[in-house]
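Notebook p. 47: complex prediction with N-carbamoyl-L-aspartate.
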Amino acid sequence: MSELSVDHLLGIKYLTKEDVDLIFETADHFKEVINRPIKKVPSLRDITIANLFFENSTRTRLSFELAEKRLSADVINFSAASSSVKKGETLIDTVNNILSMKVDMVVMRHPNPGAGVFLSKHVDAKIINAGDGAHEHPTQALLDSYSIRERLGEVGGKKVVIVGDILHSRVALSNIFALKLQGAEVKVCGPKTLIPKYIEKLGVQVETNLQKALQWCDIANMLRVQNERMEISYFPSTREYTQQFGVNKALLNSLDKEIVIMHPGPINRGVEITSDVADSDQAIILDQVQNGVAVRMAVIYLLASKIKR
Ligand code: NCD
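Predicted complex, structure tokens below:
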């Protein structure tokens, strides 16, 4: 197969296993490209991409922009904080104005779940969801699985525990879909109040004891507590959260094996993960960031190849 089954990347939910394999094979090629002295290919010289960020982002925005530039696309950036959205313009009007400047692809981060799907139905451009509220963050899950594949050979059959704020995390949901699609086993671990009631319907088990969860897994993906999405308190205090659900070196040393530690960033050092763990060889956090560029290049390239030109 040399083509994606989808016209947009709106969520992992819409992808097939073959799509994921194709994205990874394409990313392998681009990873080699970005390690060359000249890190650029001319593939998308005729394509214009708009990065629309209606919500804060550092890593994801820079990673997309770099991926686009490494493919030689023309890039325009838009951030809601400095735009007419603040003057009451609707999403469709904002985007249509941008598209009238002949944009072929839109990378969008938006606080509303489903914003990407909505847009894909109303505008004539390829849409990549760069995070829609607490719903999905598909390129993050793809780069996470790609990093597991790189470190451990394959994703299928691996045991992955996702730790922390599962309820408010788009990274958790997209990872669950991606890992299950590739045949990994998934558990979630965190305060009961931060684990959605429907989670077992996704084929995921719940383990509230962190030590047991870590002893079971090959990989632990540590999530940040999404304080910005909380209107009430979900646990007594940050100190208590860290005591129960934070990973430190002593805890890892108490296991009878060495597990791989992941984190999508931004890290809250000393809350979900201590510095000695984050900076250790067991952690592949910076590999994830590096792989993010190659994986996003692959997604952009494969979607662009479906544009009629
Ligand atoms: C995540 C996000 O924004 O969903 N970060 C990221 O994209 N690397 C996770 C987070 O904010 O905790």
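Notes: DSSP finds eleven helices and nine strands in the chain. Residues 3 and 272 are 39 Å apart (CA to CA).
Next step: compare against the earlier run before touching the bench.
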